[in-house]
């Protein structure tokens, strides 16, 4: 399918879906302050059953105090209105077919005299919906002043490994979204993209462990959707933030919003400067003939990172039912890096034979531009249409310089330099990427119980990467190319990936005799057509290292087309009020990323090579989940049993060669992962709550690589505890501890990891400012150890990043519109959630 045909289908879809089919009942009203007569924003409006006061549905009031609730129920219902600082209101209403307008409803301010007592009750950390868990992270103190990656590390179910790869419930290949859109042009660079977003800019994080057909089929381990802060309050409002961290870490930024009549404009800017160090120690032993018996290697790195992130946008409300939106962002970042390598070859008695020292100096700059526009239509009767289009460009300049010295040892333990083996090297890796996304989603109620959702999406990507490497013995000499077994290190790889998707979802709620919804389902089917084209200047693959006759393919092009169907089904049964059981299934795909496909030899360290496989195929996974949710007044428990079966899985393997080892990727694996997750949320009172999350899972991976079979299995577990304690009149404290159990890989395991974070927060300046202090990795225990053993080669790698950091942050909020519309409670605390802490 070409772009022209996709465009025709896209337009036809939009025209077809403008037809209204059926409608729901609407309840519309305006909530006002009984004394001041001003609108009450963010008040909760809920409809309940008169028989047992069970919740039917609800919503929030907007800047005008207007709320709108859609329901299939009719007849006599109870309307409940509530907001902090106001008395709760219950009112019996009669809901008839169509639109029910209630007019203005007044809420009376609470009359309780609180004196100097400060309200510091914390909002619940998370809430659960049919296909996701949504975390309120605005008040995660332990991540303030940090980045999006550091924020994700604090959340239950999420782990970030030594290379920045993100996993959920022990499974990798996570799809990351920002505001419902792909985060970057290449999933291989997720960490560096997320590092550009300050934790203070994030409002919520959605964990979609088993995505429905509504979402891209990519992402075997699930989807993490990061929702950034945006205000829609009347008038000029915003906030400024500043943070200082140990080890030269600085962040400054602002979020501004201007809403007037039907226009809403927003602007955000953040600057970050962060210095980070890394340490790596590798010990390798082998008995293979012709190999160095022992290689002892270490390196120390210092990174100097800086970035500017600007986001700007505007939204216009055409009428009460529709709006248009346009936005853009610029992300400019740079990194200077210094690294010292020490590579020692030892004889069997641990005597030094030879040694390399390498000094790396790197200069990297990267810029990303994104532009987008959208249209939203919601007639209030269940008919919703969303149209979105975006385009992004990314480019990188990256060059590294190496100074390498060679030494030999003697029997007496002395070492001497060999001047003729001195090398001066350069290593350049530019890249350019482009991505365009076109998307249309449509929802429509069919009758009083059935809902239909459908949509089309086209994602068009292009990645162009290359590398050049040169070396010389004297700085006055011209650079020469590096040839390894007849293969040049210089290379180019281009990949075009076009994915066209469409989905259809039907969901239903059946009412029992009492009118409460007990059983519901959501069944969907997604179809995706994939077209992947690649070009490689020098086709490198495993096998050439020990084959002097290996000849690379030159200027090779490949094209793959495949069509797949991805069903999903979600079943939910309400056992009783506040007690539900859910079962769901989905089929997912993992397409190989650019990093795993590009046939480049990584020239940073010729003792630890990396080599992509441009012939990797897609892997497929069947995901099963069974969930149980039970809530009491002060305690909630969520239990999940999950199973993932992957065929044709993409796995990382270590292949030995004469100098060291090479990491490569293959499709030789079948993976099974079965586990249990238990989340306990407990609140003692308004001053203390705790969330304890535990995961226990079994992993098995097996496969074959070039005639050699492998199989590995293990049991592992993760624990995460997050507590909030308020000391009235002083501050709020937050503590997070996590334990990440051993993880299985095809030829070994990753050892357990433990860490603890602690944070304090206090409001100042009449609750317009907040000052916080946090310390990450209090015991400096966040270290990664990777052990591999294939019978011939044993390797142990210890990796440590700077993780023990103390950060102090200050945030100042201003809301000019409140000078005309005071809504503070009797204790003087702003009713908006930002004012609670």
UniProtKB/TrEMBL annotation:
InterPro entries: Beta-barrel_TonB_sf, CarboxyPept-like_regulatory, OMP_b-brl_3, Plug_dom, Plug_dom_sf
Keywords: Cell outer membrane, Membrane, Receptor
Primary subcellular site in the record, as a coarse category: membrane
Pfam families assigned to the protein according to its UniProt record, in alphabetical order: CarbopepD_reg_2, OMP_b-brl_3, Plug
Leader sequence residues: none
Domain of life: Bacteria
Keyword Membrane: yes
Domain Outer membrane protein beta-barrel: 381-812
Full protein name: Outer membrane receptor proteins, mostly Fe transport
Gene source species: Alkalitalea saponilacus
Lineage per the UniProt record: Bacteria, Pseudomonadati, Bacteroidota, Bacteroidia, Marinilabiliales
